[in-house]
Amino acid sequence: NWESIKELAQLDGAFVMDRAGRIYCAGAYILVKNGVRAHPGFGGRHLAAASITQETDSVAFALSSSGTLRIFEDGKVVFQQDLG
C-alpha cells in the first residue's frame, strides 16, 4: 500500500521493480563491475540509480530529500527538475 511505500522511500538505496510496477526490494545498493562516478552531493539513491542504468537496459528515477527529481540512463543524469 502507499503508506508502506512512503515509509520504505525514506531508506537510502533503490526500489527494484519490474515493468508491471511490482516491488521486489527496497533500500538496495546496486554493485557494478565498472564503477560509477557519483556526482558530489549524491547519496545512495542517486548512486543506485546511476549504477543500475549503467549495467542494465533500464531507466531509473531518484528523488532527493531536497525535492530534486533526477532521471538516469546509461549511468548519467538525462533529466533534472526541482519539485520542491
Mean pLDDT: 82
Report the top-level CATH class: Alpha Beta
Query: Helix count?
Result: 2
Write the element-wise H/E pattern from the N-terminal end onward. HEEHEEE
CATH topology: YojJ-like (1
Q: What proportion of the residues is helical, as a percent range? A: 10-25%
| Principal-axes shape call | globular
Strand order of the biggest β-sheet: 3-4-5
Radius of gyration: 12 Å
Distance between the termini: 24 Å
Describe this structure in a few short sentences:
The protein has 84 residues and is α+β, with helices and mostly antiparallel strands. Helices cover 23% and strands 33% of the residues.
Explain what the structure shows:
The protein has 84 residues and is an alpha+beta fold. The protein has one domain: DNA integrity scanning protein, DisA, N-terminal domain (YojJ-like (1). Helix content is 23%, strand content 33%. The strands form two sheets. A three-stranded antiparallel β-sheet has the order 3-4-5, covered by helices on one side. Strands 1-2 form a two-stranded antiparallel sheet.
